């Protein structure tokens, strides 16, 4: 007979019928279900269902079938099938942590048959051990009960098969006998696996680092031993005493996809010791003390009490903008254009009349001037006019050369697309001096308003970092925006990019393409740049390389093509925080004559940051094609750590003072390899903010 615990469990699981009665039946079940599992419940003809109750019944049937198939796949040690089901179904859909009629979970079967690959796959998906095994004795008793009852059932069926004459019933009992013999062998294997297992060894390594002024990060690795059972959870303990008495806290980690843990709520400046131990079905193993043996929560700002650079800046700028708006609105309301000459009023009136005239539309061709085009894309499609043209509007037909300062001013305007009407009013009021610059910028705002009105959308996206010029005297400013929803626009429609490129008839020669032809030819490159410029770095501490070059009207910065919104960089480590002790060491190194960190041989092994920087500097020098011996003249920027949010921070590596910025006409002795470009500094700053 089963124990009282198992009787209660069977009553609770009575709603779940037993799975396939034999290995062959199991194979047939999930072979037949292999195609069906990929079908969503809503893919059926809902008109054939009587009502909501039928749908729910069908859903539960599928959930049961997938759960039964998962048990059978684990029992048959079919790793491929287990991985496939975990990939296509969520833990809830698989009932991953609901015991079967024997009181077992898929993870129980995997660890007690010592199938480490399947057990690890289940653990990463969120599988847990059965809560009914509250002790080693209860697990042992439960396994003995399963083995005894399976053996008893085999003996009963064998006696019936031997004593009965051959008939249909006898054939069915032979099938049952084979199934129970197979299950008897499975339970015996599980029982033997449990009996021969031992507690796990200590984690092979435990690394402790300072995550912030109130937290520590613990990273650990699984035990090296392969003889013990699969580890199913870990325990992190911390204390102010090296003897761990008393304990200040502990945390049990049963989600094993990433083996790390952050201890929060600690006291800055206090010494903490940390250790980690592993657990399997035989219990907790010995703890492993961290390396280093202790850490002190801190942040580099505590070195001199420095406040965050951007604290309150956003709020102050918003307040300042509000004040500016108030002043200009008062001026517009009470002194409308009082100071403008009559000729200028006529010009503005004419421009506004043209903007709202029914004849206002997109241009098909360029005729020597300054133009604005807006590129909206979604997947491999792009927005075009009904004449299959990219949306283009005119800024100024008499503007022969684009001043870089006007272009950079427009890139800043792109941060305020919703404020164009207000900006137009501001520029209009301030034109009493008839400045050519103000006139050009006012025409830019008019063109933006026209584009917004024709498209029916305010946000035109990001300005590409350089305008397109041709030999016919045309200058084309390009904005780029990715549309991630099925959004509709006025006067335009979606077409495949390849169709637009192959269908357009060029009106220029290949030797002297127009700005529009150049745009179409380089469209994929521009879209790729736009997508890459919005990518974010993964959390961590990075070493960046600052290299500038100057021209007559701008300064440009070297960036990687794959991440043009970030300086050339390599990752130092995953922890973005620089502790106070590490910053003190960097300040000490900055005070010596050698710019690149160097320490006595005996101190190197005791300073992880030194080793990390040495590796990162070598990698960065290789990346930007600078001989490693030249690194001795480079310097680490020691004034501050550049923090980008809470998860990304940068240390800067600077060339010698004379080489930080290459002057016009000066040759750069070290040319970076392919995969880099130079951006105007103002464009880079805007991309960094985005």
Automatic annotation (TrEMBL):
One of its GO terms (cellular component) is spindle. It comes from the Eukaryota. Residues 1-25 are annotated as: Disordered. Signal peptide: none annotated. It holds the Pfam family fn3. GO terms for biological process: establishment of mitotic spindle orientation; regulation of establishment of bipolar cell polarity. Residues 202-299 form the Fibronectin type-III domain. This is ANKF1 protein. The gene is Ankfn1_1.
């Amino acid at each position: 007979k089963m124990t009282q615990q198992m009787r209660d469990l069977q009553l609770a699981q009575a709603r779940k019928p037993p799975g396939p009665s034999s290995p062959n039946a199991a194979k047939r079940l999930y072979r037949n279900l292999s195609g069906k599992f990929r079908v969503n419940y809503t893919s059926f003809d809902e008109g054939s269902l009587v009502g909501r109750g039928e749908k729910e019944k069908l859903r539960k049937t599928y959930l049961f079938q997938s759960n039964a198939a998962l048990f059978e796949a684990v029992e048959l040690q079919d790793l491929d099938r287990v991985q496939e089901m975990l990939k296509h179904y969520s833990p809830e859909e698989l009932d991953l942590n609901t015991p079967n009629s024997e009181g077992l979970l898929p993870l129980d079967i995997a660890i007690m048959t010592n199938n480490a690959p399947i057990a690890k796959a289940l653990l990463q998906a969120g599988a847990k051990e059965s809560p009914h095994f509250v002790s080693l004795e209860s697990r042992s008793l439960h396994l003995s009960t399963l083995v005894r009852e399976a053996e008893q059932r085999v003996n009963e069926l064998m006696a019936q098969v031997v004593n009965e004459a051959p008939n249909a019933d006898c054939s069915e009992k032979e099938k049952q006998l084979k199934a129970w013999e197979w299950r008897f062998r499975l339970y015996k294997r599980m029982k033997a696996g449990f009996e021969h297992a031992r507690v796990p060894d200590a984690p092979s390594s435990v690394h402790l680092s300072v995550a912030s002024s109130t937290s520590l990060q613990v990273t650990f690795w699984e035990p090296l031993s392969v003889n013990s059972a699969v580890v199913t959870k870990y325990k992190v303990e911390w204390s102010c005493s090296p003897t761990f008495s008393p304990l200040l806290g502990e945390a049990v980690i049963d989600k094993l996809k990433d083996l790390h843990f952050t201890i929060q709520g600690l006291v800055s400046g206090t010494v903490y010791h940390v250790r980690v131990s592993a657990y399997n079905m035989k219990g907790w193993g010995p703890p492993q003390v961290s390396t280093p043996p202790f850490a002190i929560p801190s942040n580099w700002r505590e070195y001199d009490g420095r406040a965050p650079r951007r604290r309150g800046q956003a709020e102050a700028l918003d307040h300042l903008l509000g004040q500016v708006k108030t002043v200009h609105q008062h001026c517009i309301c009470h002194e409308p254009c009082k100071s403008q000459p009559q000729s200028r009023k006529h010009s503005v009136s004419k421009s506004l009349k043209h903007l709202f005239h029914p004849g206002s539309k997109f241009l098909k061709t360029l005729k020597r001037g300054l133009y604005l085009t807006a590129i909206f894309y979604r997947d491999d499609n792009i927005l075009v006019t009904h004449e299959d043209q990219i949306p283009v509007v005119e800024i100024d037909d008499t503007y022969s050369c684009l001043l870089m300062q006007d272009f950079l001013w427009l890139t800043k305007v792109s941060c305020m697309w919703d404020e164009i009407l207000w900006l137009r009013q501001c520029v209009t009021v301030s034109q009493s001096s008839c400045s050519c610059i103000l006139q050009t910028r006012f025409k830019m705002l008019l063109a933006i308003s026209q584009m917004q009105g024709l498209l029916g959308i305010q946000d035109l996206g990001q300005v590409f970092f350089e305008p397109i010029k041709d030999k016919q005297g045309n200058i084309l400013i390009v904005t780029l925006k990715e549309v991630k929803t099925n959004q509709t626009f006025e006067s335009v429609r979606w077409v495949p990019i390849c169709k637009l490129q192959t269908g357009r008839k060029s009106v220029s020669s290949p030797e002297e393409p127009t700005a529009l032809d150049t745009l179409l030819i380089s469209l994929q490159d521009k879209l790729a740049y736009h997508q890459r410029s919005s990518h974010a770095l993964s959390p961590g501490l990075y070493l960046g390389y600052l290299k500038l070059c100057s021209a007559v009207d701008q300064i440009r910065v070297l960036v990687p093509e794959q991440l043009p919104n970030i300086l050339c960089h390599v990752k130092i480590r995953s922890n973005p925080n620089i502790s106070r002790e590490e910053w003190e060491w960097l300040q000490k190194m900055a005070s010596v004559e050698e710019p690149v960190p160097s320490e006595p041989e005996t101190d190197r092994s005791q300073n992880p940051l030194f080793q990390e920087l040495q590796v990162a500097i070598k990698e960065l020098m290789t990346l930007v094609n600078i001989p490693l011996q030249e690194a001795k003249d480079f310097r680490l920027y020691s004034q501050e750590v550049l923090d980008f949010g809470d998860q990304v921070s940068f240390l800067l590596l600077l060339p010698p003072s004379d080489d930080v910025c290459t002057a016009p006409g000066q040759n750069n002795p070290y040319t970076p390899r392919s995969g880099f470009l130079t951006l105007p500094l103002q464009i880079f700053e805007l991309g960094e903010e985005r």
